[in-house]
Every structure is written in C-alpha cells, then in structure tokens.
Amino acid sequence: MSSTDIDAVTAAFTDRFGAQPAGVWAAPGRVNLIGEHTDYNDGFVMPFALAQAVTVAAGPRDDGRWSVTSLNQDQTKEFGPDDLTPGMDGWAAYVAGVVWALRGAGYPVTGADLVLTSDVPVGAGLSSSAALECAALAALADLSDLDVDPLERAKLARTCENEFVGAPTGLMDQAASTLCTLGHALFFDCRSFKTEQVHLALDEAGLELLVLDTQTPHALVDSEYAARRRSCEEAARLLGVAALRDVTDLDAALALLPEVEMQRRVRHVVTENARVLAAADVLRADRTTDLAPLLDASHASMRDDFEITVPTVDLAVATAKSAGALGARMTGGGFGGCIIALVAAGTADEVAEAIAAAFADAGYGRPTHFLGLPSAGASRLR
Ligand code: ADP
Ligand code: MG
What we know:
Blueprint: H1 3-17, E1 23-34, E2 44-60, E3 66-70, E4 75-79, H2 93-104, E5 112-118, H3 128-143, H4 150-165, H5 172-179, E6 184-189, E7 195-199, E8 207-213, H6 221-239, H7 250-256, H8 260-284, H9 291-304, H10 311-322, E9 327-331, E10 338-344, H11 348-362, E11 368-371, E12 379-380
Parallel strand pairs: 3-5
Antiparallel strand pairs: 1-2, 1-12, 2-5, 2-6, 3-4, 6-7, 8-10, 8-11, 9-10
The structure holds adenosine-5'-diphosphate and magnesium ion.
Residues 127, 129-130 line the site of magnesium ion.
C-alpha cells in the first residue's frame, strides 16, 4: 500500500459517490518466513505482513445494501442481504462473505460502499485473498461501530474464505493480515492461537529478504494439498495422537508407520515444526543471520520429504544460493508460487537477476521480485 493508493481510492470514491469516503483502511498480504504445511497439523507458523496491501475507501449507505468496486478489476458489484449465499461466484465473494460471516456471528453490519485497490500480487501465494477480506472487514467493522478484536477479525475472515468462498485454508493468512506489527514476524501457534511478535531485525543484521515470484502456473494444487492433508491425518491416527504436532519422538514414530511415503510426510511436518521453534529462538536473540540454515533445511524437507516443490522453484532456490544468498526456501503451499531468500543488504536485485538468467537458460518465463519488508497488519489510515 502507498499514499498513491490512498489517494486513488479516495478520488475514485469521491468521483463515484460525489462525497468523501468516511475513512480509508488497509490490510496487507503476507509471506511465510518458515513453517509450511504445519498449520493443519496443529503446529507453528511464522508469517510476516508485507508492505503490499489492499487499500479500501468506504462510506455507509442507508438502504442496507453493499457495493464494492475493485480498481484492479475495473468492476463494481452490488449485493443485498438476500444475495449472501455461500458459493457466490467471482471476486466480490471475498467481500460479501465478510458481511455474511459478521452477520452470522451476530454483528449488525451497516450497508456500505467500498472502493478498493491492491498491490498484492494475485495468486502468487502472498494472500491477496486474505488482504481483501481483512481490509473489507476493517472498513465494515468500523463503519458499523463493531467491537471485534483482531483475532476474532482473523477468524471471521477465515470463515468467509472457508465457508463462503469455499477455499479450505488455515488461520495463518488472516492472522498475519490482522495481527502483524511493523518490523516483526508473527510466531503463531495454530492449536492455541497464541501469538508472539518476534523482531525480524533485517536492517540491523545488514540483511534483506528477497521475495521472488516464479510465476509458475499452479497445477494440481488442490488435489495434492488434499492428499498431503489426508496423509498427515492418517499418520496421526496410526500414531494415536491428536495431530502430528504431538509427535515427540520422531524415530519412534517413523518405526510405527508402514509406508516410506507416509514416513517422509511425517518427517517433514515434525522437523518443520522444530525449525519454526528454532527460528523463534533465533529471532528472539536477534541472531537473524542464523535463520539461513533453517530456511535451507526447510526447503530440502519440502523438496525431498513433503514433495511439494517443482523444477522452477528448486532452480530459483539453488540459483539464489549459488548467487550468494545465505539461505533460501520456497514459501507457501507449494507447486509454484514464491521463494524467499535471505541476502546481504543491497544484493537482492543481483540475486534476482541471477535467477532470471537461469530461468531464461532453462526456457522458463521471467520471474518478478520485490523486497519483503516486515510491515504492520490491518489498520485505519484515514
Ligand atoms: P492468493 O491469496 O494467493 O493471492 P487466492 O486464489 O487465494 O490467491 O485469491 C485470489 C483471488 O482473490 C482473486 O482471484 C480474486 O478473486 C480475489 N482478489 C484478490 N485481490 C483482488 C483485487 N484487488 N480485486 C478483486 N479481487 C481480488
Ligand atoms: Mg489466498
């Protein structure tokens, strides 16, 4: 989000409705620093909010209906209470579903007009969807004078995504978008929902975090995600634990499992959880550089044990390393999307350029990149 985005949504709102918006809100996308496929195993994750965000100007209306304009889509959608049916088509479902979730939880939501823009890349695994939900929720909750705490906001936004849009996701994305604070990563326990802000001291350590979108079209994501999830649940059942988070002795657990593939899946989840805990320790001690081997190990585990990487992603990570990155890993659910690389300050462009060259040699399309700047969660801007 930028001041240009604030001006853009304010001007578009004023143009359309002939009056100033009542306010402007924003909610960021996120990148997961470490902890992949641990969320549905009741484990730990550590996302941070990006500077990229959905920015929304909004004002109340008195006919009890809602309109939402996306400047990115150049489209306006309007809906009333009778249109709030789960499974609704199109991007406006992410806003209608927020109204639906708030009302379902007993919150009276005022009719409103929303005009939004976003600089969160869409479909890259950076949670443009959660940013959209959380921005809409921030605007609607304030306009309706609702007292909803940030964790409750995250849960309602997830209800929208799971039950109204129909995408089965954990709470991480919405928690990151609402709860993150500037300069910190969010150490999040997906079982207890306990949170801790851990200082991500990149500047102080002379580091920066490159986020590179491989632009790989996601294939098989839904079926592979479901298969991994099933495998983890089946393993937990065989091991007699509520979730893989409860496995304390990995070797003993592996000895109890019948198939090599399931053993690998369990090894990823158990070691990945341990890496998130180690990352929290490292950041608490401001030893940011020591994140690097954890990122590398996380990537190897996703590649070899959980088998959720693809050739573009593996090439990006390997090239980042050979171009000088201290550590690198795929981030997100897998089968494409983004990688992150911890690099010396001032070298992110160079590392990204090396990856672009390797992609050109391999016949892949050109990746895009930006710096991951640990930013604040959803807030009112005006
Ligand atoms: P991700 O969250 O990884 O970016 P998703 O598939 O979960 O990908 O969410 C992307 C969807 O969110 C888009 O297809 C669109 O429906 C909606 N969306 C995101 N940003 C916007 C926007 N600025 N305007 C309209 N819809 C958007
Ligand atoms: Mg999403």
